[in-house]
Amino acid sequence: MYTYTKQQLFFTAEMCLSMGSLMSGLNILFRLGFTAAALTTFLSGWAPTILVAFAWNLAVAAPVTNLLISVFATTPQQSLDPDRAQQIHQWATILIMCLSMSTWGMVIAGVLPGLPVSALLFTWVRSFALAYIIRGLVVRPTATAVLHRVFPG
């Protein structure tokens, strides 16, 4: 079983807190607009969403990502190709977390059962595009800076 360092757990918590908050807030704004109902909806589902994201990341996304890295980033000499491992880690994590958490959002909103497949695919594509941009421009650089401030060296 994989064990996490304090730094890895802290970074994972930062990423889940930031991405969960921003993506949940944006998706609620897209659905309800900038209203009091949107704020109430966001606040009522915020803590469960962050907790589910953190648990899902540790229990599912990280082990699947580590498996993919061990299968596809290992050279014939049984050494790890660090560049390939980093690419697999970044893409696998965002794909797994984005698709599963956007589906979680639809489930807790009660819209998944009656949602046409085209709307589901549109939501997944929109969520992935937003998550990729937000993670790259805001969340990952901020989380990395905070991590280095909290755990210097």
From TrEMBL:
Keyword annotations of the record: Membrane, Transmembrane, Transmembrane helix
Q: Which residues cross the membrane?
A: 28-47, 53-73, 94-115, 121-139
| UniProt-recorded name of the protein | DUF2798 domain-containing protein
InterPro entries the UniProt entry points to:
DUF2798 (IPR021529)
Q: From the UniProt record, list the coiled-coil ranges.
A: none
